[in-house]
Structure formats: structure tokens, C-alpha cells
Amino acid sequence: MREQAEAEENAAHAEAAAATCKERTAKASLAAAGSDVQNAKEGLSDAKAAVFEAERALEVAKECRQEALDRMLRASSAESDADIAVRDAVAHRIVAEGDKERARLAKEKAQSEEKKLRDAMPGLDSEAQRQAELAEMIRRMRELNKVEESGRRERQVKEQREREETERRRREAELAERAAREERERKAREEEARKAREEQEQRQAEAQRLQEYRDAAAKECDRCTRRDARWTPWITSWTNARHVSWFSAVGTEFDEIKFCASQPLTFESVPWPLLLPPQKQTLDSVEWAAVEAFFAATKVALGEEQHKATLEKAHRRFHPDRWRSRGLLNTVLDEALRKRLEEAGNTVAQAITPLWLASKSAR
After folding, report:
1. Where is the composition biased (Basic and acidic residues) (predicted)?
2. Cα Rg, the chain, nearest whole Å
3. DSSP 8-state class, residue 259
4. Is residue 343 predicted with pLDDT exceeding 90?
5. d(Cα 189, Cα 101) in Å, to the nearest integer?
6. Do residues 294 and 273 lie in contact, with contact meaning Cβ atoms separated by under 8 Å?
7. DSSP state of 360
8. 3-class DSSP state for residue 105?
9. What are phi and psi of 260, to 5 degrees?
10. Rounded to an integer, what distance in angstroms lies between the CA atom of residue 145 and that of residue 24?
């Protein structure tokens, strides 16, 4: 019976070695696929960054265009004001020159007619002369009234033109203010929409990342379940020697795997030094005393030299600096699980350290 059991165990070890070889091949393929997925994600991230930069460039171009339009509007308004001022100055000058010229002509005409009248009627008596002078004064008054009326009409035209120009500028200012207000409101709406879009994209990306993590973690758990399935026949008769054998095989695998987003660290991925079948191990099982009991059993099962070698490997494997350099906990997106895995790893490392120091001093 013992020989048959040993033969079965040897056959199981052979099958385990073959399965390990196949599993390593599959892991290499999986690592390559994970690298391709990571490259694709980086490409997508670069594309999103390019889109974001293009949107920002478009916003800057729109702002520059609006500023140019505002400057053009102000320049046009200033040019219009200058043109109006020139026209007003010319009109004032023309009116003044016209008034001056009309007054001069009226004066010359009055003097000429007065002279003619005096020359033509030298014999008129004083009464007739007074009547003539009165008539001349009336005529002059009428001419002056005509000049004043003409000036008044010109002033009215000018005032009307000024009122119309003032109204035009007021309407232009209102239109410019309304356009600026609408532009500000449009920019505010676009900015709000952009922020909402970015927040939505971030939420979707985070949800997708968490879903991808859950899928990858479930896949890793399934892999570990298949890995431990070859040990299931001995679960009812689990011995310290079998657990040492399991710890050694899984430990070598654990040291070689490059855990990443496509293959995150799980509790089942770690070769915990516990005297329990892998199917019965939990985070609550990881205690200082349990770790000490395991390495006491390895000393009996393996002998002094192999025990020291196993202890040396375990000390390096569970050292916190080693976990940080490999980025193991960074692959765990479940915050609660990440914290418990870190605590469990520290417990194992703290329990191993005095055993490792004692083994070194005993050499």
C-alpha cells in the first residue's frame, strides 16, 4: 500500500510538472496579450489627450476670433465717430463762411443801393428821404431775416443729423453688448458641457477600469483554483510535507509572475506559509503563530539546510520593499482588499524576520 501511494504521488508530481510547464507557456501567452492590451490602452489615452488639446486649441482660436471682431468693431466705431466729427467741422465751417459771405454781400448791396438811391434822387425832400431810408431798412431787415432763417434751417438739419448719429451709435452699442453677452453665455454653456462631458468620460473610464479589474481578478482566481485542483485529492489527508511541496511550487510561480492590470494580485495568488490546504486558507488565517508553525514544520520535513534555503526565499518574497518594487498592491483596485493583503503580507514578513536572523546566526 505504501509503495502504491508513493507511486501515485510520484505520478501526481509528474503530472504537476507537466501541468506547470503548460501553465508557464500559457502565462507567457497571457503576458504577451496583456502587453498588447496595455499598449492599446496607452494609444487610446494618447488619442483622448490629443482630442482634449484640439478642443483647447479650438477654444483659444474662438477667443482670438472674438477679440479680433471686438477690436474691428471698436475701430469701425472710432472711424465712424471721426468721420462724423470731420463732417460736422466741415458743416460748421461752411455755415460760418456762408453766414459771413451773406452778411458781407448784404452789407455791400445795401450800401450800393443806398448810394444809388441818393444819387438818383438828389432833389427829394427830407420826408421822401426818410421814407426811402425806412423802406431800405425794411428791405435790409427782410434780408437779414432770410439769412437767419437759412442759418436756423441749417442748424436744425445739423441737430437732426447729430440725433440720428447718436441713435445709431446707441443701437450699435446695444448690438455689440448683446453679441458680447451671447458670446459669453455660449462660452459658459460650452465650458459647462465640456466639463460635464469630461466628468462623464472619467466616470465611464473608472467604471470600465473597475469592471476590467473585476474580470481580471476573477480570471486570476479561476487560474489559482485550477492550479490548486491537482492537490484536491489529498485535501482530506493533508500533511505538512504536502503543504511544504505546495508552498515551494506556488512560491516559484509567484516569484516569476509579473502582476499587472490584466493579471492583478489576489489572495489566492500568494503562497501563504500556513499549515492549511489552499482551499481552506483565508485572510483571517494569516497570523504570526501560524507562520512560525509552518516554518517549524518545514524544518522537520526538509531538514536543516533546505529549511534555511526555504526561509531565505520566503524572507525575500514577503519583504515589503520587494512587494513595493514589484508593484503588487498597485494592481489591486479594491481598496479594502488591498489594505488587508498589505497587512497580511506585513504579518508574514514580520514573523519570518526573526526566524531568518536566527538561521543566519546559526550558520
Report:
1. 100-119
2. 52
3. -
4. yes
5. 64
6. yes
7. H
8. helix
9. -155, -170
10. 118
* Residue with the three cell numbers 497571457: 30
Tell me, what DSSP letter sits at residue 263? B
Take residue 81 and report the three cell numbers written for it.
465717430
User: What is the number of other CB atoms lying within 10 angstroms of the CB of residue 308?
Assistant: 19
Q: Write the CA distances from 196 to 47, 55, 201, 330, integer angstroms.
A: 19, 14, 9, 29
pLDDT band for position 50 (50/70/90)?
Answer: low
DSSP of 265-319: --GGGS----SS-GGG--GGG--HHHHHHHHHHHHHHH-HHHHHHHHHHHHHHT-
Query: Which whole-number Å values give the CA distances from 55 to 34, 59, 61, 200, in the listed order?
Result: 32, 6, 10, 16
**Structural contact between residues 311 and 352, judged by C-beta atoms closer than 8 angstroms:** yes
In angstroms, the CA 359 to CA 306 distance is 11
Closest CA to 187 of 75, 55, 74: 55
Residue 333 scores a pLDDT above 50 = yes
CA 23: distance to chain centroid? 42
Render pLDDT for 22-45 as a digit per residue (tens, 0 to 9).
555 445 445 544 555 465 566 556
Least confident of 102-116, 129-143, 261-275, 315-329: 102-116
Cα 334 to its chain centre, rounded Å, is 25
Counting every residue written for the chain, the total comes to 363
CB 33 within 8 A of CB 219: no
Stronger pLDDT, 26 or 141, i.e. the higher one: 141
CB 244 within 8 A of CB 301: yes
Helix (H, G, I), strand (E, B) or coil at 260: strand
Q: How far is CA 285 from CA 135, 277, 342, 363, in A?
A: 135, 11, 14, 31
